[in-house]
Write a structure and sequence with these properties.
6 helices; 2 domains; mainly alpha; about 140 residues; about 60% helix
């Protein structure tokens, strides 16, 4: 396994620079491929991001870490991304739809990790396959 090194003086090694260039190339290719799909098959980037962020929230919850908006903001998840992730957890039936305790953390309805992962995967598949997945998820969105 190769070790990636960066230098203290602000310059990055050739290996790191090559990885960044490859990442930029792959992102551009993904954008191009998505643009070639018919609009009704593209899905929503917000829905895809909400699914990933919901997994992060769930992993924090089962690791006894904070899941509130402020705590997740300190981990780099913005206010809107947190709101969409919580909307997805509500849609999946993992978090209560009535809970208003978002500053301190979320109230999880299910305490079994395997069941939560199953619900997340099922709900994610439903939303991604549904052309109106964005609209469905937005109905679970609350102001924060």
């Amino acid at each position: 396994m190769r070790r990636i090194e960066s230098h203290v003086n602000g310059k990055i090694s050739k290996e790191t620079e090559a990885i960044y260039q490859e990442l930029a190339l792959l992102r551009a290719e993904n954008r191009y491929l998505r643009s070639q799909l018919p609009k009704n098959r593209r899905g929503s980037q917000i829905v895809r991001t909400a699914i990933v962020d919901a997994h992060q929230l769930m992993m924090n919850a089962f690791s006894d870490q904070a899941t509130g908006r402020l705590a997740m903001g300190r981990q780099g998840m913005g206010k809107r991304r947190w709101a969409w992730a919580v909307a997805f957890l509500r849609y999946a039936g993992i978090v209560s739809t009535n809970s208003r305790k978002w500053r301190r953390g979320l109230e999880f309805l299910i305490a079994d990790l395997v069941q939560c992962v199953t619900l997340l995967e099922t709900a994610g598949k439903e939303l991604l396959e549904n052309p109106d997945g964005y609209k469905t998820l937005s109905s679970y969105l609350r102001d924060v």
